[in-house]
Amino acid sequence: MTSINRDLVGFEPPPYPYDRLDPIQKIASELEGGIVDLSIGTPCDPPPAAVIEALSGSGSERGYPASIGSEALRRSIARWMGRRFGVDVPVSRIAACIGTKEFVATTPQFMKLRRPNRDTVLYPAVAYPTYEMGAVLAGLRAVAVPTNAEGHMDFTSISQDDIDRALMLWVNSPSNPTGALDDLKYAANWGRTHNVPVFSDECYAEFTWATSAQSILQHGLEGVVAVHSLSKRSNLAGVRVGFYAGDAEIVEYLKEVRKHAGFMVPGPAQAAGVAALDDDEHVTVQRDRYRQRLEFMSSTLSKWSGIDIPMPDGGFYLWFNAQDAWAFTEKLAREGGALVSPGDFYGTGGAEYVRVAVVQPDAKLKLVAERLK
Known about the structure:
It is built from 14 helices and twelve strands. The protein has helices at 2-8, 22-29, 49-57, 71-85, 101-114, 130-137, 160-165, 184-194, 230-233, 248-261, 267-277, 281-305, 325-336, 362-372; strands spanning 36-37, 94-97, 120-124, 141-145, 166-172, 198-201, 224-229, 242-246, 317-321, 338-339, 341-342, 353-357. Helix 2 (22-29) runs parallel beside helix 13 (325-336), helix 4 (71-85) packs parallel to helix 11 and helix 12 packs parallel to helix 14 (362-372).
């Protein structure tokens, strides 16, 4: 019976990356004051009071919410993109998603149904793992694109065969985990030239340090889709509000497919999204928090480790070469009680690197610093 069951198994999910940290998590937890978890980018700061009020008082919990997002939510998204990026996106080219991880994980299978003669998903070689996993779950080829000397995706390295088979391309700027900013104009033009839709994950755009916030939509809507989330911007990871916007045909297609699949952001969450998107002040406050935390932890870990740990161009992660990433991770857990992420979680190209998410309150970061002294 066991051998028969094994024969029937087609796909066995790999270990979830962060589950591999369990032994080190136990080490960090043994220090007085407990663990300081800097491994996952889970926001800890409170969202604005108006957002909580909207979440609890919308009265929208009784009926089924619109899969594409309410008119109010989509209009607030359009207003925000106009303020932040200076782009005018029609409401018809905007739709909601349940956070963005589910969108990243499911979109390849929907795009495959639309274009069955293509079987390849292109994505950054050092990246958020779900770009690759979304392709795997759809039964597609996942092809990693390395970076060039400028830190951008090296499109010249993509073979003609992979271009011909490419169903879609993911770009991520600012990058998780590296914090690098990609050349979104180049990516958009490359996609249009080769008839490959470009999906731009921009969930860290509000935390761009080296330039103003950037979107691929600033270079035209045709052939591209920008993906955004309120999880980082407004500390609403538990509410699951995201959205996508861009190319008319692609957005319309995904709106209809996702409607049939029953993807719906809960009504109260949509109301909270309106309140969050219409308020820029709390984002300014959050930007200052993350900037100060990045500077503090960069200095703290540099002094302790002797490694020059640079500030990122964007995002709220420190990313640096620790040579032996797992040894560094365990040593930091033993001495500082902090849990961080070895870079091989994000691809083999990150194997020597470590990612530190500066999402914990200042008091916890200072606790790590005191331990490391």
